[in-house]
Amino acid sequence: MNSTPAAATDVFAPWEDPGATPLIRFDHVTKRFGSFTAIDDLSLDIYEREFFALLGPSGCGKTTLMRMLAGFETPTEGTITLGGQDLAGVPPNKRPVNMMFQSYALFPHLTVADNIAFGLKRSDMPKSEIAGRVDEMLALVQLSKFAGRKPHQISGGQRQRVALARALAKAPKLLLLDEPLAALDKKLREETQFELMDIQEKLGTTFVIVTHDQEEAMTVASRVAVMDHGRLVQVATPEVIYEQPNSRYVADFIGDVNLIEGTVFECTGGKCRIKWADGVDPITAATSGTLNKGDSCCIAVRPEKLAISAERPADAVNALSGKVLDIGYLGNISTYHVGMPGGRILKVQVANRNRLTRRPFTWDDEVWISFTETAAVVLTS
Ligand SMILES: Nc1ncnc2c1ncn2[C@@H]1O[C@H](COP(=O)(O)OP(=O)(O)O)[C@@H](O)[C@H]1O
Ligand SMILES: [Mg+2]
């Protein structure tokens, strides 16, 4: 057995272990509605204890994927297995899967406790055990004090937790959450995200969450799948999705990004020099891929990885001169829109560490934007 100290083995990353067996496997799954392809030859493994997020614009197939897992839809082609078992022909109520819907309607005439007990009473759990299980669930979502209240006597966030407790009461192997926090306001949603992560960690249940909110996906998930038109574009940890997007689509979908189109001028020793405008220096970016002179590509660089200064920084690998066109002040950060040669506009984000008494730069100021070669990602798709 492995006896390395905990710190070295504690990292949860079963997807990197070629010997690990996934809990869920989508194997070349296609789903068509008539002639419309909602899911297009999709293969994906999800592992036990994962908090997995499906992220993508409305209509890209997230709910369809979940409904197939839950058994409300059948794949047109391909197979879905759960713990090695082919789910084809297994009805929803015979799957160790529960789904918490976007509109998690509670029964208004039942108390919080009875809402949570509802599914248990219809299961084969002995009556004597139900009350204990309900108490456990109430404690888990910190609503023990509210057991006797009706849904209209608690807040929106608390109702959301009741729905979660109800969905978890039968101890499913897999919980599917379809936009579970969409009805909550921003602050409550953020708090609830942390509660969800806490509960998921405590129970060790595998969660698959659907969201169109990229910050939410990044916050809660062990891995994120970015979808587009029924396909997976990238499946990776939040860090990799953010720092090493595999395409313009992912770079642009997650967070703020500057995308600079150009052509490869030269590429050797893991470094590319990319021409992006006439009469200015090429941009240098580190890359692990091999590109040829003349290839068209795109440089993706996040606004917070750019620095802005009045003078050209002496030792900067990339320094571009431009003019401040616009300033967005958000309190904690300021975003400068800087006009570049060729009409391009770059966004630069600066953290306001000190209280601002006077802006360091103002409209129409000539400035320099600088960044390192590893701040930029070179994309070819
Ligand atoms: N039962 C259905 N019949 C026909 N088209 C459907 C059906 N369910 C979903 N679709 C279509 O499949 C696509 C994906 O839908 P959905 O999975 O709900 O997307 P998402 O949850 O990502 O917003 C959409 O274009 C939707 O209109
Ligand atoms: Mg949906």
Which CATH class of the largest domain applies here? Alpha Beta
Overall 3D form: globular
Structural class: alpha+beta
Q: Indicate how many domains the architecture comprises.
A: 2
Instruction: Return the CATH topology of the largest domain.
Output: Rossmann fold
Using the 3D structure, state the CATH architecture of the largest domain.
3-Layer(aba) Sandwich
Number of helical elements: 9
Helix fraction bin: 10-25%
- The total strand number stands at 20
**Which regions are unreliable across 5 or more consecutive residues at pLDDT < 50?**
1-8
| Beta content | 25-35%
Strand arrangement, major sheet: 6-7-8-3-9-10
Mean pLDDT: 92
What is the string of SSEs from the N terminus onward? HEEEHEEEHHHEHEHEEHHEEEEEEEEEE
Describe this structure as you would to a colleague.
- The chain is an alpha+beta fold and 381 residues long.
- It has 2 domains: 13-249, P-loop containing nucleotide triphosphate hydrolases (Rossmann fold, 3-Layer(aba) Sandwich); 256-379, OB fold (Dihydrolipoamide Acetyltransferase, E2P), CATH 2.40.50.
- It is built from 9 helices and 20 strands.
- The strands form 4 sheets. Strands 6-7-8-3-9-10 form a 6-stranded mixed β-sheet, sandwiched between helices.
- Helix 3 crosses helix 4 and helix 3 (112-121) packs parallel to helix 5.
- The longest helix is centred in the middle third of the chain and has 18 residues, at 186-203.
- The model is unreliable at 1-8 (pLDDT under 50).
- Residues 62-63 line the site of magnesium ion.
- The site of magnesium ion has 2 residues, from helix 2.
